[in-house]
C-alpha cells in the first residue's frame, strides 16, 4: 500500500511543466457552482445588519471574459466612524472554500458587531472571493490563489479590490484578523493542483487536527496569539505539533501557533501595518467539529482579539 504522501500526478498538464492557457482552461471547465453567494452570504448579511453598521459595495468581480458572471463585493463598516478610535479589520472568504471563514464573519456581524462598535471603528469584508465560495475553491477563475496576491499590482482582482477598500475606508488599522480553514482537500486536491500548475513537486504534510493560528514573523505578538488560543480552546480543540515540532512544515512557536512571512508571501494579513495580526485556521473535517462549532471558533477568535486590543489600548 502506498505511503500517505505518495500521490499520483495531477491529471492536468505535464509533470514538471507549468500550466499554460490551455491547462488553465481545462481546470476552469471542471469547476461547478455548488452553492449560492447571493443566498448564503448576501441575503443573510442584508437580513442581519445591525443598526450600528452600514453596508458598502466596494467593487465587482467581472468574470464574463471567461464565460462566468459578475459578483458584487460587500463590506460592513461602523456607521459612526470616529477619528482617534483604534480600527479593527476582519476579513473572511479570501479562500472561498473555507466556509466558516465566511459564515463565522457573518455570525460575528450579526451577534457581536454592535457591542464592539461601542469601542472601535470596524471594517469587515466577509467574503472576498465569492466565486471561490460558490465553487468551493481555493483559487479564483484564473487559477490564482488570492491569498498569495496581496501585493502592489496584484493580478487577482479579489485581492486588489480588497486592498483598495481597506485603504479607502480604514486608514490606520490596529488589529487585523483573517478567518481561514485548513481542510483535508488541501492534500487531496489543492496542493497537488498547485504543484501541477507551477510545474513543481507536491510536498505532503499531515493536516493538523484542530484549530491553530498563523502569526506574522515580522509582528509575532506572542501574548496576543496566546490569548486567542486560550479563548478558542473553550470551543474546539487546538492542533498539536507533529513529531518534528511543526504544523504543516512550520515550527510551532507556542501551543497552536506558527508564523509565516506574510508580506513576503503576499498574504491577506500583510495588507496593513496593524500592530496585531493573525490568521485563524479552523479544521472542519474533524469528526468532533460541527459547522456550528467551526463558526463559533471563528467568532471566539475575533472576540478574543478585540478584547486583547481593548486592554492593550488602555495600557498604551
TrEMBL record:
<keyword id="KW-0378">Hydrolase</keyword>
<dbReference type="GO" id="GO:0016788">
    <property type="term" value="F:hydrolase activity, acting on ester bonds"/>
</dbReference>
<feature type="domain" description="Peptidase M14">
    <location>
        <begin position="35"/>
        <end position="316"/>
    </location>
</feature>
<keyword id="KW-0862">Zinc</keyword>
<protein>
    <submittedName>
        <fullName>M14 family metallocarboxypeptidase</fullName>
    </submittedName>
</protein>
<dbReference type="InterPro" id="IPR000834">
    <property type="entry name" value="Peptidase_M14"/>
</dbReference>
<dbReference type="GO" id="GO:0008270">
    <property type="term" value="F:zinc ion binding"/>
</dbReference>
<dbReference type="GO" id="GO:0004181">
    <property type="term" value="F:metallocarboxypeptidase activity"/>
</dbReference>
<dbReference type="Pfam" id="PF24827">
    <property type="entry name" value="AstE_AspA_cat"/>
</dbReference>
<dbReference type="GO" id="GO:0006508">
    <property type="term" value="P:proteolysis"/>
</dbReference>
<dbReference type="InterPro" id="IPR055438">
    <property type="entry name" value="AstE_AspA_cat"/>
</dbReference>
<keyword id="KW-0645">Protease</keyword>
<keyword id="KW-0121">Carboxypeptidase</keyword>
<keyword id="KW-0479">Metal-binding</keyword>
<comment type="similarity">
    <text>Belongs to the peptidase M14 family.</text>
</comment>
Amino acid at each position: 500500500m502506498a505511503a500517505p504522501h505518495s500521490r499520483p500526478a495531477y491529471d492536468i498538464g505535464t509533470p514538471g511543466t507549468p500550466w499554460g492557457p490551455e491547462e488553465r482552461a481545462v481546470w476552469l471547465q471542471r469547476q461547478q457552482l455548488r452553492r449560492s453567494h447571493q443566498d448564503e452570504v448576501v441575503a443573510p448579511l442584508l437580513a442581519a445588519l445591525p443598526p450600528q453598521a452600514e453596508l458598502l459595495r466596494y467593487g465587482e468581480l467581472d468574470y464574463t471574459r471567461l464565460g462566468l458572471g459578475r459578483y458584487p463585493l460587500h463590506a460592513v463598516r461602523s456607521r459612526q466612524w470616529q477619528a482617534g478610535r483604534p480600527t479593527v479589520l476582519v476579513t473572511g472568504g479570501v479562500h472561498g472554500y473555507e466556509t466558516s471563514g465566511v459564515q463565522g464573519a457573518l455570525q460575528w456581524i450579526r451577534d457581536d458587531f454592535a457591542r464592539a462598535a461601542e469601542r472601535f471603528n470596524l471594517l469587515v469584508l466577509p467574503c472576498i472571493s465569492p466565486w471561490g465560495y460558490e465553487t468551493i475553491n481555493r483559487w479564483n477563475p484564473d487559477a490564482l490563489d488570492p491569498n498569495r496576491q496581496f501585493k502592489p499590482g496584484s493580478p487577482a482582482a479579489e485581492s486588489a479590490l480588497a486592498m483598495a477598500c481597506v485603504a479607502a475606508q480604514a486608514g490606520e488599522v490596529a488589529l487585523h484578523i483573517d478567518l481561514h480553514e485548513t481542510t483535508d482537500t488541501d492534500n487531496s486536491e489543492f496542493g497537488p493542483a498547485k504543484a501541477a500548475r507551477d510545474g513543481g513537486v507536491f510536498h505532503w504534510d499531515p493536516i493538523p487536527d484542530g484549530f491553530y493560528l498563523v502569526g506574522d514573523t515580522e509582528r509575532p505578538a506572542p501574548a496576543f496569539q496566546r490569548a486567542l488560543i486560550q479563548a478558542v480552546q473553550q470551543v474546539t480543540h487546538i492542533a498539536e505539533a507533529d513529531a518534528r515540532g511543526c504544523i504543516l512544515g512550520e515550527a510551532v512557536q507556542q501551543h497552536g501557533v506558527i508564523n509565516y512571512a506574510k508580506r513576503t508571501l503576499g498574504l491577506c494579513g500583510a495588507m496593513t501595518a496593524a500592530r496585531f495580526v493573525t490568521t485563524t485556521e479552523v479544521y472542519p473535517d474533524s469528526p468532533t467539529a460541527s459547522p456550528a462549532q467551526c463558526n463559533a471558533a471563528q467568532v471566539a477568535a475575533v472576540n478574543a482579539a478585540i478584547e486583547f486590543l481593548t486592554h492593550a489600548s488602555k495600557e498604551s
